[in-house]
Structure prediction request, 91 residues.
Amino acid sequence: MGWLDIFRGRKPVAATAGAAKERLQIVLAHERIGRTREDFLPKLQAELVAVVARYVAIDPGKVAVNLDRGGDMSTLAIEIELPGPRGLAAR
Prediction:
């Protein structure tokens, strides 16, 4: 890397390749989770209910978790019916 490259904003090839490799690993891990684990969504729902229940009294039967996969993006939607102001007391 020469002095002029510093002022032109060029990055070393190794740094760019490392960043690309890291991004690819993240994408592949995300794809593996979605394809190979049938228990992913029920397990995620149970863990989310447990975390929210630590702070708010909720009915686990009134929790809906939806995972929509389409194209190059996945969307996770979580609907939790919260109690009125009296039920929001911290545990």
About this structure: The mean pLDDT is 74.
